[in-house]
Amino acid sequence: MNTERENASPPDSREASDPAVRMEGVNKWYDAFHALKNIDLAVGRGERIVICGPSGSGKSTLIRCINQLETIHSGRIVVDGQRNVDLVRQETGMVFQQFNLFPHMTVLENCTLAPMKVRGLAKAEAEETAMKYLKRVRIPEQAVKYPAQLSDGQQQRVAIARALCMNPKIMLFDEPTSALDPEMVKEVLDTMVDLANEGMTMLCVTHEMGFARSVADRVVFMDRGEILEIAPPDAFFGAPQHERTRFFLGQIS
Ligand code: ADP
Ligand code: MG
Fold first, then answer.
1. Which of 33, 63, 224 for a ligand 1 pocket mutation test, highest count of atoms within 8 Å of Cβ?
2. Which residues face 48 on adjacent strands?
3. Which atom of ligand 1 is found nearest the CA of 222?
């Protein structure tokens, strides 16, 4: 048998081969409303997934179930090999359409709060980490300002930096550019492209199809709580399989 080889494997080799996210037969209801129907989705480490679909199709629900902001009724979701709520939350960074920054705290304080409270970092260390990520999203000079003093695009970049300060393994984005003025969409997408290029595992709900084409490894199309289609961008945009997908793509283009 191959026990020798197994014994020679490093202790974390099994974990390293686990997908970043595995959803199996996931169902969720809001009262009588069936919001997620038999969702199967495995996301590889470093994979970039774009999720699109009509309003109300379950995109936010799917994302929120992954980091356990919502509970599921059947099936299972494993994130980085684990199902423990606290661990899963610590491994996933989330960026929402509304930036959800604390208005009474500076940019720097927004970024250091969770690392100090949840991870127990000392202030100096948390601030060093925060400045690293504020540089990465290209707004270190805004650190001492309050959110209201920033443009929407800058606020969303702070929200991304804040999520990164927890050193997540997976970043979840729920329509991060939908609330932005058109001229600010690019600066936020650019920081997301940077992240993707660094190898971050990402699931992004977005209708920015240029981003999907250039960054996504696979595009997921959801409709009425189901994953109808999942394919690499070339196939997804070039030869969508479902009438609903073609209709949707026709509408947003
Ligand atoms: P999407 O993000 O694709 O627009 P959502 O996941 O937000 O869709 O919502 C999917 C469906 O579930 C919608 O019909 C929505 O009205 C419903 N829904 C979402 N959240 C709740 C909730 N907290 N309570 C009841 N229904 C909800
Ligand atoms: Mg949504």
1. 33
2. 202
3. 3
Q: How far apart are the first and last CA of the chain?
A: 56
Residue 63, token pair as written in the block: 């994302």
Give the tens place of pLDDT for each residue, 174-214: 999 999 999 899 999 999 999 999 999 999 999 999 999 99
Distant-in-sequence, close-in-space partners of 83: CB < 8 Å, separation ≥ 6: 76, 77
Write the pLDDT tens digit of every residue in 81-103: 988 888 888 899 999 999 999 99
Q: Residue 21 is which amino acid?
A: V
For Cα atoms 183, 112, 201, give the angle at the middle one, nearest 5 degrees.
60
Query: What is the per-residue pLDDT for 6?
Result: 40
Sign for the CA dihedral angle at 18, 19, 21, 26 comes to negative
Position 8 scores a pLDDT of 40
Query: Residue 211: is it exposed, middle or buried by C-beta count within 10 angstroms (0-12/13-18/19+)?
Result: buried
Contact yes or no for 245/220 (Cβ under 8 A): no
- 235: tokens are 């196939």
Residue 183 makes CB contacts below 8 A (sequence gap 6+) with 153
Low-confidence ranges of the chain (pLDDT < 70): 1-16
Of all atoms in ligand 1, which is nearest to the CA of residue 175? Answer: 2
Ligand 1 atom 12: the closest Cα is on which residue? 35
Looking at residue 252, what is its pLDDT? Answer: 86
